[in-house]
Amino acid sequence: MSRNTEDIEMRLLLEAIYQQYHYDFREYSMASVKRRLRQAREHFRCASFSLLQDRVLHDPAMLPKLLDYLTVQVSELFRDPSYFRALREQVLPHLRTYPSLKVWVAGCSTGEELYSLAILFREEGLEARTMFYATDINLEALRKAEAGVYELDRLPLFTENHRRSGGKSSLSDYYTAAYGGAVFDKSLRARTVFSDHSLVSDAVFAEMHLISCRNVLIYFDPELQNRSVGLFRDSLIRKGFLGLGAKESLRFSRHNGAFADFVREERIYQKRDDGDRV
Amino acid sequence: MIGGSAGAFEALSVLLPSLPADYPLPVLVVVHIPRDRPSALAELFRAKCRVQVTEAEDKEPVRPGVVYFAPPDYHLLVEADGRLSLSSEEPVMFSRPSIDVLFESAADAYGERLVGIVLTGANSDGAKGLRMIGDAGGTALVQDPATAQAAAMPLAALYACPGARALSLAEIAEFLQKVPVTK
What we know:
The structure holds two protein chains of two kinds.
Chain A: H1 3-21, H2 30-43, H3 49-58, H4 62-70, H5 81-95, E1 101-106, H6 112-123, E2 130-136, H7 139-147, E3 149-151, H8 155-164, E4 175-178, E5 181-184, E6 192-196, E7 208-213, H9 222-235, E8 236-244, E9 259-263, E10 268-271
Parallel strand pairs in A: 1-2, 1-7, 2-6, 7-8
Antiparallel strand pairs in A: 3-5, 4-5, 8-10, 9-10
Helix pairs in contact in A: 1-3
Chain B: E1 2-4, H1 8-15, E2 27-31, H2 41-48, E3 52-55, E4 66-69, E5 75-78, E6 84-87, H3 99-110, E7 115-118, H4 127-135, E8 139-143, H5 152-160, E9 165-167, H6 169-182
Parallel strand pairs in B: 1-2, 1-7, 2-4, 3-4, 7-8, 8-9
Antiparallel strand pairs in B: 5-6
Helix pairs in contact in B: 3-4, 4-5
């Protein structure tokens, strides 16, 4: 099979998924999509993407399985502890001045980032005035996020991350071990709305004080990155904060001018006063 | 494309400083590095090299005459339009960045114009990717296992990609000088 044929088939497969199920991966970073679709092709024992397309078009039960390949679900609690330390020490003092707060975890996957922020806000006494929005396109991942159960063998890493983030309590205060899993305290998500939301096709839904969207934009092509950052700009209040992944930046973004570096090395940005007009 | 693990720093210290300031090709490098702290590789080699050396950024266009290192805790990939992408997909064989991930995407993006090199290392990352580079018509090179600080990675690459040539570091350096003319 020539590489060219494979590329044609891949584009047709993504088009089929979009037309039939309205999940739009056509503007994702193709190198990574191709790699993951090749894994799916192997897993489902299809000789080509065309055969995989046939399966997914005629068997709706295939869709969630394929989505698990197409959406990357790799995270950890307090991933990049220095990011959470910067939120704690530099961003939260600003947020403290507002009587009520809205925080959006965009592309929350299985919820690790949401629980990290909920714990951080509780430790800093801001939880009671905050609404959290945790969104993703993968419903199965959202269900896992809402359940808040993680494998016990991941907890040593989470605990170490939390400690390095400047954690003021013990992470073990927030979960109980049961059936080989760590079940996180459901009160942590009492102020969270979990929702199906796509950065590709959906719109602004609330005015946010902080948006954390880390290691999501790297899977998008530059045009879709622009759309997403534009959506964040429109969702943030003036002087609202945007946190990106450690290796993501607004440097190549069309909306760069709407934001100022706030904590440069942690990729935390602040929307400018005139950000809506830029 | 160059991939290495245990002992790769010394091997790269032979290869990269040998490139002239006006080297007309991009060089992408994956070295297995600890995930939880910033990598000093780009900085260290910047001081030793005549070519530009940098840590890769997401969606950055690949430029000739620049050496790009994969950052810690991210895979590095090449898009068909010549931009770089980062990814935090699962580690491959316990490695993120993974050589296989870079090589696979580069084989798709560059095809026969690509040279893949597997250096010293103690696991088998890079073997599958080198095979894909060979299958796409690219040139597959391996550091001669007899001269490698850790032979496992070159041996695995030669086993997976029998068409690959085993060369000493001096021979690879010489090859890199000539590639722009012959390819």
